[in-house]
Amino acid sequence: MPFYEHVFLARQDLTTAQVETLTEGFTKVLAEGKGQVASSEYWGLRTLAYRIAKNRKAHYVMLNIDAPAAAVAEMERQVGLNEDIIRSMTIRVDALSAEPSAMTRRGGDREGGREGREGGREGRGDRDGGPRGERPRREPRA
Predict the structure, then answer these.
(1) DSSP string over 35-88
(2) Does residue 15 or residue 107 have the better pLDDT?
(3) Can you tell me the distance from the alpha carbon of 87 to that of 7, in angstroms, rounded to the nearest whole number?
């Protein structure tokens, strides 16, 4: 059977338990189509790059899938009908990775991904919130 990676973004006002229920529902749809979810990863509530359907944040979930194309198509149809899902993407891959994804390795449960850096502004010149110092004086124009 072919392998797929499926990522979906759920609305920010859902609880983690509700997101897990959505994941279980999609897993059941795949199982009915003679497929399986090899692994699933909850990446947490993360800030979006831009608003999507009035949401500034979303719950990110990735599913590693081993299923026939028909089962994946039915799961995508169910995802499209669900009002709690604001975005999704499925890609076909050659093999499923046994190791955790890059998002999980770097701490996917962190909100926004900027913790650990002082105020999220490290390395951005004088925008770090510290004192700016004196501005150079302009020479009067002749």
Answers:
(1) -EEEEEEEEEEEEEEEEETTEEEEEEEEEEEE--HHHHHHHHHHHHH-TTEEEE
(2) 15
(3) 8
pTM: 0.71
Q: If DSSP states are collapsed to H, E and C, what string results for 112-136? A: CCCCCCHHHCCCCHHHHCCCCCCCC
The pLDDT confidence band at residue 70, using thresholds 50, 70 and 90, is: very high
Question: Distance between CA 54 and CA 56 in Å, rounded?
Answer: 7
Residue/partner pairs of 83-87 with CB below 8 Å, 24 or more apart = 84/10, 84/11, 84/14, 84/18, 84/22, 85/8, 85/9, 85/10, 85/11, 85/22, 86/9, 86/10, 86/11, 86/52, 86/53, 86/55, 86/58, 87/8, 87/9, 87/52, 87/58
Domains of the chain: 3-95 (3.30.70.60)
Across the chain, mean pLDDT equals: 84
- C-alpha 86: how far from its chain's center? 11
